[in-house]
Amino acid sequence: MDNNPGVLRASGIWGVGSSVPERVLTNADLEQMVDTSDEWIQSRTGIQRRRIAAEDQAASDLALEASRIALDRAGVSAEELDLVIVATVTPDMAFPATACIVADRLGNNSAAAFDLEAGCTGFVYALTVGSQMIATGAFNRVLVVGSEILSCITDWEDRASCVLFGDAAGAAVLGPALPGTGILSHVLGSDGSGGDVLYMPAGGSRLPATEETVASRQHFLKMKGGEVFKFAVRAMARSASEAAARAGLEPSDIDCYIPHQANNRIITASASRLGIPLEKVVMNIHEYGNTSSASIPLALAEAWENGRIEPGDHVLLVGFGAGLTWGATVMKWMSDEERVL
Ligand code: UT7
After folding, report:
1. Which pLDDT score, from 0 to 100, does residue 7 have?
2. Domain spans, the chain
3. What pLDDT, in 10s, does the model give residues 263-313?
4. Contacts for 211 with CB less than 8 Å, ≥ 6 apart
5. Radius of gyration (Cα) for the chain, nearest Å?
6. Does the annotation mark 260 as catalytic?
7. Superfamily of segment(s) 10-181
8. Of 108, 162, 260, 284, which one is the catalytic site residue?
């Protein structure tokens, strides 16, 4: 590989893909499970339905499907990958990393592979790490995936959170780009003092699994929704405008705004703070709910499939999540001719 120390390379997305499980859980279904209503869920969140994995489906299964699509569209073979990063809060198991499982199942047994956990901001974090690895010349073809089976950590007796989440995966293949194209800027940050507004108490070294932790429902996600909401609007607007500025752009220069799909009110409030009109905002939360680190690449893949992203467009991805974390990136969508082989 041509490794030129001190000279940073541009990098960009060569191909995107996504995957969702078949089973659909509607708001009407939830009305049968907890004390809620379709009207409450739609008016407070915008969600109409979400996908739920089959019992034998794990994060690597959805990741694999999304990755195969992204690789095919990128024209990159699995053997060419030299780095695989999977962002997830619901890995197949604590270890080995889901990224190693995905790489193996793709047929690659040599690429570097690791999981990255940054809550719902995981994909933006992973994209940043992957693109920086290409920038330095350390790696040439990077697969970045966000994959979640949130249904397995959702407390289906807690109406305040169970109506929000769904399962999905999204993937992107990164490669070198002509200067001035591809990924133009990043913003990442965290504030651990907000760790208690969104977390899963048990199953780690602080509170290992016991009969008691299972009985007291400590292996499910806990959330203070109102606090997350307030943080989210501020964090998204701030990091998105900073990422635009670092790319030398105004928010009004953004052609396609792809925020983490957590709540339609959070999305529209952040877009309005940025002055980005709704026709430039990608929203699919009504269809899939909040799929954590899969939500941004899922929305990105759908936007690309629907012809909403053209080469030359400025695309802004922005997320927030458990940690608390936040992150944004701006890219100039690449044409095939702008790939550097
Ligand atoms: O990826 C990050 C993950 N999390 C988030 O992004 C969550 C961000 N937060 C939110 O999206 C919103 O805060 C929620 C959708 C979770 C809640 O909306 P809200 O407008 O903040 O409602 P609230 O929590 O203030 O609750 C209002 C009322 C309460 O009843 P009272 O106390 O006013 O009588 C809740 O008990 O709505 C009640 N409620 C429900 N009612 C019917 C809470 N959940 C439900 C429900 N169905 N599912």
Report:
1. 73
2. 10-181, 183-338
3. 999 999 999 999 999 999 999 999 999 999 999 999 999 999 999 999 999
4. none
5. 19
6. yes
7. Thiolase/Chalcone synthase (3.40.47.10)
8. 260
Which CATH superfamily hosts domain 183-338?
Thiolase/Chalcone synthase (3.40.47.10)
What is the Å distance from ligand 1's center to 259 Cα? 20
Measured CA to CA, the distance from residue 285 to residue 306 in angstroms comes to 16
57, 78 contact by CB (below 8 A)? no
Q: The pTM is what? A: 0.96
> Left (φ > 0), alpha (ψ -120 to 50) or beta: where does 75 sit?
left
Q: What is the pLDDT of residue 341?
A: 87
| C-alpha 249 – ligand 1 centre gap (Å) | 35
Rounded to 5 degrees, φ, ψ at 300 are: -65, -45
Quick one: which atom of ligand 1 is closest to the CA of 266?
Answer: 11
